[in-house]
């Protein structure tokens, strides 16, 4: 099934606890890095390749003002996705319901996010997408509770809760749109009051899956939290890298693709192990970093790289990527060869590449095709591969 993904970003709250420290400005409209705080969530969401659009929910009395502000922001840095603005309601759940009403008919999955949590990453969204199957009712990010938690009434301790089973819940939260609409209708009909959408699913008897959240995904709530805005690292900058590599057949290296040996395949000519797919992937990652190509870092004139595993080269490239703050969100790989037939190997290659990059399998795509007997690959003289890497960088 093809899914269309949208996000609802809630920016209609009052922010009463923070108002005395901000001169009355709602926290979602505080300026951070030259933009209103809610805009950071928009830009982070837009770095997710699967995202089709954003619904921003604003206070009703500020809708015209914020809609004009949005146009200015888009002219400065267009996120490249559709953005709609709608009025919010009195409660958080009312704002979500109004946001749901604005989603297009083809939307099948929706991320609900609080704009007061501006420091989540595209990788967290990818983890949510990877965690939601067609059988799940929803998936939410959580982090372990480290403090001792006590139940208190009238300033008296009633009990100590087992923190091993407790988790602190974050947003964004991911749901199938039809199910989320259904539980909101039930909540409205039965007059429920909840603090997040997952709570509605619980009351409706539906199961919610969890994935690890991010400790930096803090909610700006109190005056003390304002210090985070001054010290938090800049917003990750989206980037894309393209890689391409070719190897001829007839050499003395057994074929390896994505770190997986391909039994019965032609041998290749190469200085290293000749893994054309990992070489293209390395080039694509280096492209995201602006660091040239694999030949500059691992020249075939250097004896240290004679018959070296390309997985080791990829590991060194990933060390550079981490040092420069690159977060890879998606990898798309294509092998072009007339022979061997690669369909039986694609799943194993995908899983191994995901492991090497520390990604979920769903963040890696592997394709194989021929060139209809045209060119050197069509004449079975060699093999080539291309790679596209999508990610975001936190440091120049």
UniProtKB/TrEMBL annotation:
Q: Where is the 2-C-methyl-D-erythritol 2,4-cyclodiphosphate synthase domain?
A: 240-390
**Cofactor(s) for this protein?**
a divalent metal cation
Gene3D superfamilies with a match to the protein in the record = 2-C-methyl-D-erythritol 2,4-cyclodiphosphate synthase (3.30.1330.50), Spore Coat Polysaccharide Biosynthesis Protein SpsA, Chain A (3.90.550.10)
The residues that the entry says bind a divalent metal cation are 245, 247, 279
Q: Where is this site: Transition state stabilizer?
A: 17, 27, 271, 370
This protein's record includes keyword Coiled coil: no
Q: Which GO biological process entries does UniProt record here?
A: isopentenyl diphosphate biosynthetic process, methylerythritol 4-phosphate pathway; terpenoid biosynthetic process
- The signal sequence is none
Return the InterPro entries for the record. IspD, IspD/F, IspD/TarI, ISPD_synthase_CS, MECDP_synthase, MECDP_synthase_CS, MECDP_synthase_sf, Nucleotide-diphossugar_trans
Q: Where does 4-CDP-2-C-methyl-D-erythritol 2-phosphate bind?
A: 245-247, 271-272, 293-295, 298-302, 369-372, 376, 379
Q: Note the superkingdom of the native organism.
A: Bacteria
What keyword terms does UniProt attach to this protein? Answer: Isoprene biosynthesis, Lyase, Metal-binding, Multifunctional enzyme, Nucleotidyltransferase, Transferase
Region annotation 2-C-methyl-D-erythritol 4-phosphate cytidylyltransferase: residue ranges?
1-238
The annotated pathway is:
Isoprenoid biosynthesis; isopentenyl diphosphate biosynthesis via DXP pathway; isopentenyl diphosphate from 1-deoxy-D-xylulose 5-phosphate: step 2/6; Isoprenoid biosynthesis; isopentenyl diphosphate biosynthesis via DXP pathway; isopentenyl diphosphate from 1-deoxy-D-xylulose 5-phosphate: step 4/6
Q: Which GO terms describe its molecular function?
A: 2-C-methyl-D-erythritol 2,4-cyclodiphosphate synthase activity; 2-C-methyl-D-erythritol 4-phosphate cytidylyltransferase activity; metal ion binding
Q: Which reaction does it catalyse?
A: 2-C-methyl-D-erythritol 4-phosphate + CTP + H(+) = 4-CDP-2-C-methyl-D-erythritol + diphosphate; 4-CDP-2-C-methyl-D-erythritol 2-phosphate = 2-C-methyl-D-erythritol 2,4-cyclic diphosphate + CMP
Site entry: Positions MEP for the nucleophilic attack? 163, 219
| Enzyme Commission number(s) of this protein | 2.7.7.60, 4.6.1.12
Q: Where is this region: 2-C-methyl-D-erythritol 2,4-cyclodiphosphate synthase?
A: 239-396
Family per similarity comment = In the C-terminal section; belongs to the IspF family. Belongs to the IspD/TarI cytidylyltransferase family. IspD subfamily.
PANTHER family named in the record = 2-C-METHYL-D-ERYTHRITOL 2,4-CYCLODIPHOSPHATE SYNTHASE, CHLOROPLASTIC
What's its job?
A: Bifunctional enzyme that catalyzes the formation of 4-diphosphocytidyl-2-C-methyl-D-erythritol from CTP and 2-C-methyl-D-erythritol 4-phosphate (MEP) (IspD), and catalyzes the conversion of 4-diphosphocytidyl-2-C-methyl-D-erythritol 2-phosphate (CDP-ME2P) to 2-C-methyl-D-erythritol 2,4-cyclodiphosphate (ME-CPP) with a corresponding release of cytidine 5-monophosphate (CMP) (IspF).
**UniProt-recorded name of the protein:** Bifunctional enzyme IspD/IspF
Q: Which organism is it from?
A: Desulfomicrobium baculatum (strain DSM 4028 / VKM B-1378 / X) (Desulfovibrio baculatus)
Give the gene that encodes this protein.
ispDF
